[in-house]
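Feature request, filed as a ticket because there's no other form

It would be nice if the structure record came with a short human-readable summary line next to the C-alpha cells. Right now we just get the raw output. Example of a typical job, pasted below so the devs can see what we mean:
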Amino acid sequence: MYYKKLVQSGKTVFSMNDMRQMWGIKDADHLKVIVNRLYKRGDIRRIQKGVYTIAEEPNEWEIANKLKIPSYISLNTVLRENNIIFQEQGKTVTCVSNNTLTKKVDDRVFKYYKIKDDIFFNNKGLIFGNNITFAELERAVCDQIYLFSGFYFDNLGGIKKKRLRELAGIYNKRVQKEVDELIKDI
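Raw output as currently delivered:
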C-alpha cells in the first residue's frame, strides 16, 4: 500500500515529510519503520539522509529541489536547456538558493548559489509544477548576470525582451544596466 502510493504520486523523489503527509502518519518512529522496510526490500533507494527515490534514474531536477529546500533550478542548467549557452556542463545541475553549497549524488553534482533573500523569495519568473521549481528563461538570465557579471551568452534568440526587462526590476541597478545592454544585442 505504501509503495503503491509513492508510485501513484507521479514523483520520483521523496523527503521523509513528503511520505509522512502522503501516508497520513503522525508518529515519526512508525514512519521510520515503514521507510526502513521499503528500503530493505529495495523498493526505495536512499539519495541522502531523509531523501529517497523509487526510480532507477530519478529526475535530476526533482533531486535538486529535494536536496536543498528552498531552491530552484536556474543559471547554466536552464540556459543550456533553452540553447542560450552551448557550454557543456556535464552532470552538473545549477540552482539558486538561500546559501551556497555543493552536493554530490552518484555521478551528479548539484551546485547551489546564494542570492539575496529579497530576490530569492520573489516568485516572479519562477515556474512551480511537476514536482520541481525552476526559473523562466529570462529569470535564469537575470540570475546569471547577478552572480556572474559580464557573462557571455551564446544565443539570445529565444529571450523575450519585455519579460527580461520586467524581471530585471527585482535585481540591483548593476543587473538592470547589464540587461539594458544585453537587450540592445537581441
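Something like this underneath would help us a lot:
The chain has nine helices and nine strands.
The mean pLDDT is 94.
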